[in-house]
Amino acid sequence: MLRRPFFWIIALVIVVFVTVPTIGNNVSLREGLALAAVYIVLASNLNLMLGYAGYVNFGSIVFFGLGGYICVWLVNSYSWPLGFSLLAAGVGVSGLALVFGFGILRLRGPFFALATIGVNEAVQAFVENFKPWGGSSGIYISPQVFQPLGGAGRALWVIYFLLVAAMGASLYLSYAIKTSKFGLGLLAIGQNEDAAAILGVPTPRYKALVYSASAFLPAITGGLYFFKSAFIQPSDAFDLSLSTEAIVICMLGGQGTVTGVALGAYLYEELRGYLLTSPLFSNFQLVIAGVLLLVIVLFFPSGLMGWVYSRFPGTQRVLE
Amino acid sequence: MPPVPAAASQPPTNMLGILASIIDGVLVGLVYGLAAMGLTLIWGVMDVINLTHGAMIVAGMFALYLLVSALGINPYVALPPVLIGGFFVGLALYWIAIHRMIGRPPLMSLLSTFAVNLVLIGIGTGIWGTALFNVAVSLPGVSFGRYTFPGAHILAAVLAAVIAAALYLFLQKTRIGKALRAVANNREAAELVGIPTTRLLAIAVGCGVALAGVSGVLIGTLFPFTVLSGDGYQLKGFIVTVLGGFGNPVGALLGGVALGLLEGIVTPFVPVSWTLVIEFVLFVLVLIAFPGGIFSTRRGAL
Amino acid sequence: MKRICLLAAAATLFAAPALAQDTITIGMTASQTGPLNVDSLGLQRGAEMWRDEVNAAGGIKAGGKSYQVKFVVYDDQSVGGRVQQLYTRLINEDGAQFLFSPYSSGLTAAAAVISEQYGKIMIDGGGAEAKPFELGNKYLFMVITQANYYLSGAVEALAQKAPHAKIAMIYSDDPFSKAVLAAAKDQAIKAGLEVVMDESYAPSTTDFGPIVNKVISSNADAVLGGGHYSDGATLARQMYDQKANMKWVSLLVAPADDKFADLGPAALGVTAPSQWETQVSYKPQFGPTAQQFIKAYQDKYNAKPDYHAAAGYSQGAILQHAIEQAGSVDLEQVTAALNAIDVTTFFGRVKFATDPGHHGLQDAHEMVLAQWQQMTDGKLGRQVVWPDAAKSADLIYPIPPATH
């Protein structure tokens, strides 16, 4: 894989993310890129289900939220170091996903999509009643917890670098899966699940595996995000609009491609950042997302990368 | 004096209270059933899950509010115009978002209706924000003992049942209704027999949206609403559809009653905040156990 | 000659900036959209009115300079994630030197994390929950009464009127309401009252029918609870529609808003804890009297101010006082001045706790209890009914039963 140019393109992106805000200590840029990294993680991992296997996970945010809760809870109540808490969050959530997955992955297409919404809502409603996790009030982390990392200022930088690492891992994971036999099986499932099964692809196992894999990095990212926010509550942790945006990003960039999703995430985050503070448009953020999605679904189902590939055929060999 | 221990949620010692909850649950459940019927109709006829359903319910609510506040009419008089208006909106929805998706993977129609939903809700919040709107309907209620059933609940339930019955007759007895059922059963065969399927698909969406709209009107007479209320009722609509069977309008009514019954039975015994957890867990479990819904008829048949 | 004139003209261009005024930038978010927008509006308007008055009077005067006040306000859409992004932006890009809180405890907790991470003073006029203040902060200051005391007056008054009352607590599942009712429960039990029901509902609940039936089944005489405007108003209306006939009803936030009058007969007798009412008569050591504040607000916005507006105004007034006392806008000096404050304005007395475990919690401000009654002009209005020292009318107990 080291010889393929795309590997080095991803590496370049990581280097850019790490160095640019660091030079000049540019905090606002760092914050913007941190958010872009979060979107890239969410969208890339969603892409594993959506773009490769063809299963729409409307409730993918549940991994993010649960990961956030596990990490924050371990750090706050048991004073675990951040690293272990993140790992526990990742392993815990993907383990749960594996178990859940066998159940709901029996469902096809739209039923699966509905079930994922149901799972997210059920988990949110449950957490709102779960006293050890603060119920609906959530968990507040004491600022003391930043001391082992060198105080709040330094901690924010450490968290940023970890986020970039998670982003890099997501991109490499997407790439590695796509170019592997596992990925081939997933794409076959996405094209025609029954045919794939007949041809010998072990569909239930593959689906459960990819569902579980797509949970690992979002869970860790959730842990980082909410640790940084020092505060987690159910309505933020399980906010369906984030999974919605991840879906829009995947479709915008080109589902099933690694570059497209990453590019789409970055562009979408920039657009969103602009809309956030524009007094005219901040209410219309959803409208714009919706129009974008509709146009793409109706006329450009292969997204941005689909258009790029058709105009510049050479790129398809280089950019996954 | 020793402190009196505070009672957590104690089971009500009177059967009357439980009965009142159950009856109220069934009343509201009939309205939930109506809210789900449009969803299940569209699904049954063309295999499309209409994710704008929630927005259409909200549109019905706001139509009620605007008609009542602008023209000062009786809220229930808003039903016919919303029914007709909703039908035409449904036709438009079909041509904009669904027509090109027929025959494509279900993912696509899911996303296209989802996109339209985002746009509609976004415009709605842009215009009305998320302020709460209320259409005060006060009708004399029926009391027994200390419990009262508000008149509006009773009337809404009756109207829901009437509309459901009308839909059933439409599907069974009229030519268009029978044609719809034919298309739902087997679209290719229907085309071969000369049924203009595209037109019928559009009509089906028209009816589905009209139903969503009138259920919005009825819900608007019972509870306050915001532009964002649609999502909650759409989710309830999914739960009802799963319970009652995809594609089965009578099943939707039964499913609605079942959901209302569940809420009515659960509430007296369990802290109110657990109701949602139970509903959603049930939803997922039923989906997994009965992928087509509990009362599902042959897939695609009405 | 011409060249000299040109040079002179150019010189004045360079001289002009030296005469320009200094500015203090205050950053905040408001829930302009989202479920909290009705409540957030008053807070915002109060703060803006303070800003306009201060600027009209020449600005804040400290250390020999005059500072004009500039606000930078973003819409947080009542969403916590946005609050943190926006406050980070306010600090890093918009150059906010001081911050005001958003509206509601949940959003304030989120914002407080950012203000402490970057070390900026935040004046809290919108979030009453104590938890964010108990984590160890240096620059947070709450000008309103904290959540734990919201219902203490109601409990005291109820215990006086009905020493054996049975209370049903039914409240929104959000941090603020939960904190208020948990404290109220302790206070009620200590006062010898019986709590027969203690449940929370999802904040988005619109169908209170089953809950009201449960309240009726519990044989309660009094209801304490609610949350914010929407659910409180709906709960009150549905209790009336279903003839729950409670003898005492105290709800949070909703009845303290003038819009509550829209409920008509369902509003009669309902009490609300309030940070401030137009009838209270504290003697201010500086700033406007209650009358002046009410009149100015009425002239500017064509509406009566509620306690959110009074709190919003006070955020600014207290900050201004501290800056003037400190004689500078330096962070540590203003913090020291805030820590030392013990003043009375039209809003009431303000003094902050300074021990590290509770830094910034409001120590001195008191709540009043307001009740909806039939006024002399036949319309419904709020009267202050507790404490005795501040009341404008007698408490009505029990609430007359529904007559529809």
Q: How are the SSEs placed, and which strands pair?
A:
The complex is a heterotrimer of chains A (320), B (302) and C (404).
Chain A: H1 5-22, H2 27-52, H3 61-78, H4 82-104, H5 109-129, E1 139-140, H6 151-178, H7 181-191, H8 193-198, H9 203-229, E2 231-232, H10 234-237, H11 240-253, H12 258-277, H13 285-299, H14 303-311, H15 315-318
Antiparallel strand pairs in A: 1-2
Helix pairs in contact in A: 1-2, 1-6, 2-6, 2-9, 2-11, 2-12, 3-4, 3-9, 4-9, 6-9, 7-9, 11-12, 11-13, 11-14
Chain B: H1 15-46, H2 53-71, H3 79-98, H4 106-128, E1 142-144, E2 147-149, H5 151-173, H6 175-185, H7 187-192, H8 197-222, H9 229-244, H10 249-269, H11 275-289
Antiparallel strand pairs in B: 1-2
Helix pairs in contact in B: 1-5, 1-8, 1-9, 1-10, 2-8, 2-9, 3-8, 5-6, 5-8, 6-8, 9-10, 9-11
Chain C: H1 2-19, E1 22-30, H2 37-56, E2 60-62, E3 65-75, H3 80-92, E4 98-100, H4 105-118, E5 121-124, E6 140-142, H5 152-161, E7 166-172, H6 175-190, E8 194-201, H7 209-217, E9 222-226, H8 229-241, E10 248-252, E11 271-274, H9 290-301, H10 307-326, H11 331-340, E12 342-345, E13 348-351, E14 368-374, E15 380-386
Parallel strand pairs in C: 1-3, 1-4, 4-5, 5-6, 7-8, 7-9, 9-10
Antiparallel strand pairs in C: 2-3, 11-14, 12-13, 14-15
Helix pairs in contact in C: 2-10, 3-4, 5-6, 10-11
Your description of this structure?
- The complex is a heterotrimer of chains A (320), B (302) and C (404).
- Chain A has 320 residues and is mostly helical.
- Chain A contains 15 helices and 2 strands.
- The radius of gyration of chain A is 19 Å and the shape is globular.
- Chain B is an all-alpha fold and 302 residues long.
- Chain B has one domain: ABC transporter involved in vitamin B12 uptake, BtuC, CATH 1.10.3470.
- Chain B has 11 helices and 2 strands, in the order H-H-H-H-E-E-H-H-H-H-H-H-H.
- Chain B has a two-stranded antiparallel ribbon with strand order 1-2.
- In chain B, a hairpin with a 2-residue loop joins strand 1 (142-144) and strand 2 (147-149).
- Chain B starts with 14 loop residues before the first helix and ends in a 13-residue tail after the last helix.
- The model of chain B is unreliable at 1-12 and 298-302 (pLDDT under 50).
- Chain C is of the alpha/beta class and 404 residues long.
- Chain C has 2 domains: 13-145 and 280-351, Response regulator (Rossmann fold, 3-Layer(aba) Sandwich); 149-274 and 367-390, 3-Layer(aba) Sandwich (Rossmann fold), CATH 3.40.50.2300.
- Chain C has helices at 2-19, 37-56, 80-92, 105-118, 152-161, 175-190, 209-217, 229-241, 290-301, 307-326, 331-340; strands at residues 22-30, 60-62, 65-75, 98-100, 121-124, 140-142, 166-172, 194-201, 222-226, 248-252, 271-274, 342-345, 348-351, 368-374, 380-386.
- Chains in contact: A-B, A-C, B-C.
- The interface between B and C is large, with 49 and 45 residues.
